[in-house]
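User: Before I run my own analysis I want an independent prediction to cross-check against. Here's the chain; please return only the structure tokens and, at the end, one sentence I can use as a sanity check.
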Amino acid sequence: MEWFYETPIWITLPLFTIGFVAISCGIVLALRPLVQKLVKNGKEWDRALAHVIGTFGVFFGILLALVAVSVYENFAYARTTAVDEAGEVGTLYRATTLLDESNGDALRATIDDYMHAVIELDWPQQERGILPDASDAQVDEMEGHLKNITAEPGDEQAVLQQVLETFDTFIETRRARIDATALALPPLLWLVIWVGAFVNVVLLAFIDVQSRRLHLLMVGLLSLFIGLVIFVTADMDHPYAGAISVGPGAYERVLVQVIDAED
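Assistant: Structure tokens:
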């Protein structure tokens, strides 16, 4: 599915929706002759079909709603973790200004390198659904600097404790951001969605409508809406990829407003 997320939305959205509607209308055209042969008692057929469509519509609508909400929650979680980590990096950078010059300068230089690694290396990996590891070296380097710092009891010890606590929080938010790369709906659930969409079209094709144009218009409009819902859900399914995705904007802002401003 990489092509889907790498292709611009102005190409994928029309192709997907037009294709979805066209396939739905094709199924209707293929089944209309069969339905017209099968229908003997129009009232009885309509009554039974209305019951089936109503029941199925409730379950399929609930499924789409729950899936859409679940995907959006994953997307919002990924966005929150990215913003939180960027904020913690900014806080850590400012906290290092309270350390002595040699230790503070070394840590700030490593933090600067880390931010560039996240933006330029980690994010492209996350967009491809790969757990990023490009910035691991900078994290290890920061940890090494902190282990080598010695502080006298009093103010120096308090400052070092503050830096260490901020670093621990930063590590937690970083792990959450990396773990969010693997967020996605299970393939089995996608199978259920596609089967449900197919069954929905077949049931709509079973409606005995004398006017073919009116029948195609009804099916086309409903298929257009369902196709848009499925498209948006699929586009948000991987939080860091696609047109609707979490970008490195929070890190870029911290880099410009905090790190580069201090320099």
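Sanity check: The first helix runs from residue 2 to 6.
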